Amino acid sequence: MTDEATPPPARRAVVLVTGISGSGKSVALHALEDAGFFCVDNLPPELLQDFIRVESGHGVDRMAIAVDVRTAGSLPHLLPVLDQLRSADVNVRSLFLDAGTEALVKRFSETRRPHPLSATQNDEGAMHRALVDAIELERTLLADLRERSTVLDTSQLRPAQLRLWVRDLVQATSSRLTLVFESFAFKHGVPLDADLVFDVRVLPNPFYIRELRPLTGRDQPVADYLEQQPEVGEMLGQIEGFVRRWLPAFESDQRSYLTVAIGCTGGQHRSVYFVEQLAALFAGRVATLRRHRELDARA
């Protein structure tokens, strides 16, 4: 008979780190290692179940495993393996790091490292594939895995910012869907990881108020100004209502995360205010995270 005072065994937690080459997988893996995960890089998918079983037998219950396109021939086996692990009550979360092609080209140029798919073969022997072509081929090969993962856009993230965001993601509760509210500037592009995007550029802009210009949407004077504008409250209520209406459907879709991106011109005032307000409104309903892409980049 089980002693009621004995706590149940900890559920094994596995974070699968994958994504496009050059998007920051090594940085993410190091962040998970610092967070107490046992980490391994470039493990073939065929060995995933055996690795988890062996390490669990050694008392390891938090693991992070990086899988990338270098094992492209084995990738078709990966999704069925993930389904089997989840059926065995292993808490598996797949984190897919992505970035815009322009950012990836810049990173490869700065590091002078070849893309894993840059070398190809034809009837006459080895040849070189252009970097942009290699990136697009990799996107195609990883498309199914990306569809089944939590996507994190690293295009404009510094390594320290990426480490912080990865830490926040793995620390969020995994028992239900986590809502991520993210502010951004349209002039720097829409985040690749956004599931829902709302544009608040039509609202009055505090940037044009001299004393508010150096402040952000987290500062009370900016909040006071925006709350005096009737259309701000109207749009905030409509966004809240839309997310609240469809949140149960996203939860029943067995998603781990839902990223709601709010954009304005500079990512400093209006979008930041909306993210802060929405995160507070939903904090009692589901686990919430807040990100400020442009503000976090300055920290």
Describe this structure in words.
The chain has 299 residues and is of the alpha/beta class. It has helices at residues 25-34, 48-57, 78-87, 101-111, 131-141, 143-147, 159-171, 220-227, 230-252, 270-282, 293-298, and strands spanning 13-19, 38-41, 62-66, 91-98, 119-122, 125-128, 150-153, 178-185, 196-199, 257-264, 287-292. It folds into two domains: 1-171, Rossmann fold; 177-299, no CATH class. It is globular and about 60 Å long.
Question: What brief labels describe this structure?
Answer:
single chain; 299 residues; alpha/beta; Rossmann fold; 2 domains; 5-stranded parallel beta sheet; 4-stranded parallel beta sheet; 11 helices; globular
Could you give the topology of this structure?
Elements: E1 13-19, H1 25-34, E2 38-41, H2 48-57, E3 62-66, H3 78-87, E4 91-98, H4 101-111, E5 119-122, E6 125-128, H5 131-141, H6 143-147, E7 150-153, H7 159-171, E8 178-185, E9 196-199, H8 220-227, H9 230-252, E10 257-264, H10 270-282, E11 287-292, H11 293-298
Parallel strand pairs: 1-3, 1-4, 2-3, 4-7, 8-10, 8-11, 9-10
Antiparallel strand pairs: 5-6
